[in-house]
Amino acid sequence: MKVVICGAGMAGLTLGHALKNCADVVLVEREASAADTGGYRISLNDPACRALQRVLPTDLYAELRATSDTGNAFEQFTVANARLRPMIVAPEPPRQERALAQRQALRVLLARDLAGQIRFSSTVVSVQQNPEGATATLDDGTVLEADLVVAADGADSAAVASLLGHSPTKDLGLTGIAGWAPLAGNEPPDYLLRGPALAFSADGTGVFLSLYRPPTTLADAVPSRALPDHPSLIWGTITPSGRVATARDSSSRNLTAEAERLLKGWSPWLSQHVRESDSERTSAFRFRAADPSKPIADWVPNRVTALGDAVHAMPPTGGRGASTAICDAADLADALQRHFHGESLGSVLTQYQCSIGPRARSAIRESLGPVRIIKALNHRPVQLLAHPLLRLAGTVGARRWRES
Questions:
Q1: In DSSP terms, which residues pair with 240 in a beta bridge?
Q2: Is the predicted pLDDT of residue 394 greater than 50, yes or no?
């Protein structure tokens, strides 16, 4: 069976590993190499870790864990106010696999053993299917024929848009600016030692915060640039796009200054680290999401299916996007195994597309929760009410945190 996977991100690479010994797999990737990728932290939950453990070779999964923050680095998730005082501290379920991975390092590791099957610097612009086969047309006019085409090309999936006639995702009107700063000066808030946090201010700005610890061992395939040798703070602002209208077109240095402006009046510790961030590691991006009230992957899948953000994009505010996509890939691989053992391809693909809906809707709704808070705080009357409430919640939450 020949399978063309549109996109060599987390989901596409996971599927490539799952199928490499039982199908002729080609991955089409627009970037020039696996190291050419944006993004920062990827949160991998228990189902995603177990899916990777099942799909990947044992030594590769061990490398993945060794280059990620695991164990007590991800014991809880904290919601804080602009002074970085904890308001809510939510423990993660005990005895579960989870990890905070660096996107670039993870992608390099996943691509290493599939290098001969990845067609870099190529973009799928459209796909077609019929009961006998499918095609993927590339930006240079090349047409790849396959028994199955899998759209795994992200939230702006050209493959899915060409199939449906429209994109299943929409712009949420929010822009993120993210960066990476060496830890310096005063110690970080204690709760960050046990897991990531999301902080809010009364004006509708949010910030994701996470600490990075250098791994004790580094795989040869991972460029040193992907995993610095010093402890760092990874931060990412979230704000209505109208406040940073030119952010995506700005230089990295200007983006750092823009983030400083957004965080005026926040914790001095945070402001210092944003100011001292590595400008080359600072970037901006827009938030997109699918509508969880609408059908997911609602086409008849003769020879084309999809997974991950290509069909159910979600903002990073829930930390569920990569995990959901990886689980999709493992489920699709299981479905194709049933096809290899006799079930019709259309039948197993239909079952697969029906099965991903509940998980995707749950993850999208969870990820949209912080988005709704940020959008609500964008209105002046709400801000006037929220300011004293956030301050009070931070005072009470910090006292409880110290007492615990």
A1: 174
A2: no
The CA-based dihedral angle spanning residues 17, 19, 20, 23, taken in that order and rounded to the nearest 10 degrees? -160
pLDDT in tens, 134-147: 999 999 999 999 99
Model confidence, pTM: 0.90
For residue 182, give the H/E element and its range: strand 169-182
> Would you kindly state where each structural domain of the chain is located, as residue ranges?
2-381
Q: Given this model, what pLDDT does residue 249 score?
A: 59
> What pLDDT does residue 120 have?
96
The crossing angle, in degrees rounded to 10, of helices 46-55 and 10-19 is 40
CATH of 2-381, one of 3.40.50.2300, 3.30.470.10, 3.50.50.60, 3.60.60.20: 3.50.50.60
* 28 phi/psi in degrees, rounded to 5: -110, 120
The helix (H) or strand (E) run that includes residue 395 is: helix 380-403
DSSP 333-393: HHHHHHHHTT--HHHHHHHHHHHHHHHHHHHHHHHHHHHHHHHHTTSHHHHHHHHHHHHHH
